[in-house]
Design a protein that fits this description.
457 residues; Beta-Lactamase; Helix Hairpins; Heat Shock Protein 90; 3 domains; five-stranded antiparallel β-sheet; 16% strand; rod-shaped; cell membrane; transmembrane helix; ATP-binding; transferase
């Protein structure tokens, strides 16, 4: 039962089924051909003997019992009966043969088959001379049936051998085809157990080779994904540890009485600031985890993206001034209606602005830019910071990648923010791209579909 459920078992069964159908069809066709051919061959042989006898007899021979007796002795050993009609006389011979000859008609040359008392006979009649003399050779058709049965037995033996060969071919073909699939199954089990160095030889038929190649690609992808997850967790752990260390240290100072008066106030402010940082980090992690879930809902509606950018600029103007960064705003005077979730789009712009301000040095610009091409709106946040290496732009939105590459060289975030804003923009039906900015730093551009109009509230 277990073998029947395997690929080798199924291939064997299919081969047997195909061979069985072929055997049945071939048997039916062969039986028909054997029957027809045997009859034709026997009839042709009987006709040839009748022609030979007709060429050796004349009316005198027909009238001579000795001559007819010799003829009868020649063919009787083959199971053939001879019916003779002399000139002006009645047919003479075996009674049943006479009936068969009479049905066939002795007055003319015939090659025919007749039935007498439920039995079929092959009859060959010949006319000798001009006075109506003649003879008939009568052979029971069962002689042909014996030949047919012998041929059928031979063909059945050959077909049986063919079935056996088909079964063996199916078995060995199934084993051969199933071997790479069994290797792939073992490799998949190893992957499930946690191994990532498993590889399957890419060989065999094209479909099987594709399975092996896909499994190898999956192993590579899992290895890369898990490596990125480890790096991401390391960066998040680092981001969590820094504020936690500050909170713990200053809390211990207050608890031990080391920090008092103004020092206690500064310690409390530090604790509050680091706690807020922790809260933002945890919130981003939760948002990123919920982003791919079905219950994550967005309120997509028409909104004026120009008004939203101007509101953001008012808030970020003060923060930029404290960091000696010039905030430039390039927004059309009229409304630019887009389809988006207003709260989430504001979250995206704030997240991009926070990243930009973190890397922009004093005196350099940060830019909010909005434009429209009649089909979509393009909202960009650009900075005058150091920018990114060309190979980093395509992976800028993967979790923790930029954090891992730049945390030892410049101020970086948790590695979550860009992944989060990219997911939010994608869920709103837009796109978020990264590239170099004219100001020398990086530009992050949001593209959203335009709405027909903005509802008046």
């Amino acid at each position: 039962m277990r073998y029947r459920g395997t690929l080798a078992g199924r291939i064997t069964l299919v081969c047997l089924a195909v061979a069985g159908v072929a055997v049945i069809v071939a048997g039916l066709v062969a039986a028909r051909l054997i029957r027809t051919t045997a009859d034709n061959v026997l009839q042709s042989s009987l006709a040839a003997q009748a022609d030979v006898l007709a060429s050796q007899l004349d009316e005198t021979g027909i009238g001579n019992r000795l001559g007819v007796g010799k003829v009868a002795d020649v063919v009787r050993g083959q199971g053939i009966s001879v019916v003779v009609r002399r000139a002006g006389g009645q047919p003479a011979g075996d009674a049943v043969a006479v009936q068969a000859a009479a049905k066939a008609g002795l007055a003319a040359r015939h090659s025919t088959r007749v039935t007498v008392a439920g039995t079929q006979y092959l009859v060959e009649t010949r006319v000798i001379g001009t006075r109506g003399a003649g003879f008939a050779l009568v052979l029971p058709a069962r002689s042909a049936e014996a030949t047919q049965r012998a041929l059928v037995r031979s063909i059945s033996l050959a077909l049986g051998i063919g079935l056996l060969v088909a079964a063996l071919a199916g078995f060995f073909s199934g084993r051969l085809l199933g071997r790479p699939l069994r290797r792939a199954a073992l490799a998949a089990g190893s992957l499930r157990a946690g191994r990532r160095d498993v590889r399957v030889p890419v060989e065999g038929p094209r479909e099987v080779a594709e399975v092996a190649g896909s499994l190898n690609s999956l192993a590579d992808a899992l290895a890369v994904s898990e490596a990125r997850q480890r790096d991401f967790l390391l960066s998040v752990s680092h981001e969590l540890r820094t504020p936690l260390t500050a909170v713990t240290g200053f809390a211990e100072a207050i608890a031990d009485g080391v920090a008092a008066g103004d020092d206690a106030v500064r310690a409390g402010q530090t604790i509050q600031r680091e706690a807020s940082r922790l809260e933002r980090l945890v919130s981003d992690l939760l948002e990123l985890a919920r982003l791919g879930a079905d219950e994550f809902r967005l309120d997509i509606a028409p909104l004026d993206s120009g008004a939203l950018v101007r509101d953001c600029a008012e808030v970020w103007q003060l923060r930029c001034a404290r960091e000696d960064v010039r905030l430039l705003v390039d927004v059309p005077a009229g409304p630019v209606p887009v389809l988006a979730d207003a709260r989430r789009l504001r979250q995206v712009v704030d997240g991009l602005a926070e990243n930009a301000l973190r890397v922009t040095p004093g005196g350099a610009p940060m830019v909010f830019s909005l434009s429209s091409d009649g089909v979509s709106a393009r909202l960009s946040v650009r900075d005058g910071g150091p920018g990114l290496a060309p190979e980093d732009y395509p992976v800028a939105f993967e979790r923790g990648v930029l954090n891992a590459r730049y945390r030892d060289r410049r101020p970086v975030g948790s590695g979550i923010g860009l992944a989060l804003v990219h997911g939010l923009v994608t869920r709103m039906g837009g796109t978020l791209t990264a590239g170099p900015a004219p100001e020398g730093g990086a530009a992050f551009t949001i593209t959203l579909p335009l709405a027909a109009s903005v509802p008046q509230g």
